Amino acid sequence: MSSSAFRKLTLLLMIFVLAFPAPCLADSVKLDRGVTYLNMTRENSQGRPVVINAVIADLNDNRVEPRLVMAENRLGRTQTVSAMARDNYALVGINGGFFSTSKRAIPTDTFMLDGRIVSKGMRDPAVFGLFDNGKAFIDMFHPVTVVTVCKNFVQFNVEAINHETGIGLILYTPDYGTETGTFKTAVEYTVRPENGRYYVKELYHGNAPIPSDGYVLSFQGTTGNLANLEIGDEVSVVTYYPPGYENVRAMLGCGPLLVRNGRVQKPDLTHLQPGLGSPQPRSAIGVTSDNKLLLVAVDGRNAGGSAGMSFEELAALMKELGARDAMALDGGGSTTLYAGGKVVNNPSGGSERRVANAILIISQIPVYIDGERQYFEVPPINRNGRVLVPMRALFEKLGAEVNWDPETRTITAHKGAITVEMSPDTNLAMVNGRRYELDVKPIIVEGRTLVPLRFVSTALGADVQWDGARETVTITSK
After folding, report:
1. Does a structural domain hold residue 311?
2. How far is the C-alpha of 75 from the C-alpha of 46, rounded, in Å?
3. Hey, which bits of 325-369 come out as E strands?
């Protein structure tokens, strides 16, 4: 840890000690460059211990990338936070928002990935999101989706997307599955593209098939003015965002809102179940004014004796941690914080609960192949100015077949007429029988062999560029 970073962390811990009404014990661990884990124990006003786990991720560091993910990468599934983190090679993960526990695990509120709304409920909660440039935000707004019948410009407001509401116009997309699963009382229209435009194709009374290249308009509970919609009509679907939020890439709705513009908010508990306002296990996310992300989990209802927190206490904590804006995530038994290879909080149920989505922090040297960001099970490392990456993943991404001979400890890769041979025991490599001396030899990390990225990529006919200012590798295959 640099001296300046250590001073900043020390100052932060001093603020904790001064802010808390009782002595606070804090430990910190640097998980990676730009990512720090904090464990704190304090006493509340009743003298009971409260255990707090937090991660501070510096989004100004080019290696640090926040990401929203769905369980098993599919809507309606559940998975533990640690499993989602491992599947995505993440350093840190925290549970996401509330979700249905009935037939399918559908997020209660808006969930958006890769610029598309995966699901949207009927509430107007706080949202955590990421812009196209990776900058994070927390705010209060509800995207408005409108269906327009092009022949007469009649419009329908979409009440929800991929939700089991039973009321109003619901939009079902391929993210939901292959059919809507609705009752016969629902009037449903399948919509598919033709020459870049979308047209109503078929009418169903419940359980319509969802086109893989289109969507279903499902009128539930009320038919509205359906006389304006006929087979063959051209329709369009447009989602509107508040000014300044047009370039949102990913978003998760939850809440209540805890801190806004540096001011602690009175939590709105209108849509929560009775009793959730009392001290409970809590999780929250915050954004600081200098673009750092705060992931926080508070223990409660467990054998460790931690008292948990009310939403008011959680809001005060997020403010004390430096949040300019903050909101609560799903709490209770869902509260899970994964950091540095393990769950660091004490889940109230005794073990991790499976949840519908998570917020992750990935910390790796960015590597792009033909414009697509690549992720590795063992993160790339910079050794003596040379970037090394896991051999098998790199070779396969470049279209080469790779073999490892454990007896001779030799790596052999084939791509067309090119054969590359390397070993972690020497800095000599062979390309089609010609010997080359490497600046740095392959190394073994966590059972994976890492090889020099530039040499391997160039040997396989790719162009490699290193952006020193952004510490980014760009590979263009040929």
Report:
1. yes
2. 42
3. 325-328, 337-339, 342-343, 357-363, 367-369
* Encoded tokens for 63: 């290696």
Do residues 343 and 381 both lie within one domain? Answer: no
CATH number of the CATH domain containing 176: 2.60.120
Q: How many domains does the chain have?
A: 3
Strands across the sheet containing 410-415: 401-405, 410-415, 418-422, 428-431, 434-437
Q: Do 470 and 371 reside in the same domain of the chain?
A: yes
Token pair listed for 131: 């812009």
Q: How confident is the model over 85-133, as pLDDT tens digits?
A: 999 999 999 999 999 887 789 999 999 999 999 999 887 789 999 999 8
Contact between 61 and 335 (Cβ < 8 Å): no
For residues 125 and 271, give the distance between their C-alpha atoms in angstroms, rounded to a whole number: 9
What does the alpha-carbon distance between residue 172 and residue 284 come to, in Å, rounded to a whole number?
Answer: 30
Tokens 């100015």 identify what position? 385
Select from 314, 336, 363 the last residue of a domain.
363
Domain assignment present for 203: yes
Domain that holds residue 451: 367-476
222 shares a domain with 182: yes
For 398: left if phi > 0, alpha if psi spans -120 to 50, otherwise beta; the answer is alpha
SS3 of residue 161 by DSSP: strand
327 and 52 Cβ atoms separated by less than 8 Å: no
| Residues in contact with 252: Cβ distance below 8 Å, sequence separation at least 6, in sequence order | 68, 96, 97, 107, 109, 110, 111, 112, 127, 128, 129, 357, 359
Task: Let me know whether 85 and 180 are in one domain.
Answer: no
CA distance 417 to 437: 21
225 and 273 part of one domain: no
Picking from 336, 363, 390, the residue at the C-terminal end of a domain is 363
What's the predicted TM-score (pTM) here? 0.88
Q: Is 329 left (phi over 0), alpha (psi -120 to 50) or beta?
A: beta
Q: Does one domain contain both 261 and 234?
A: no
Tens-digit pLDDT profile for residues 167-220 = 889 999 999 999 999 999 899 999 999 999 999 999 999 999 999 999 999 999
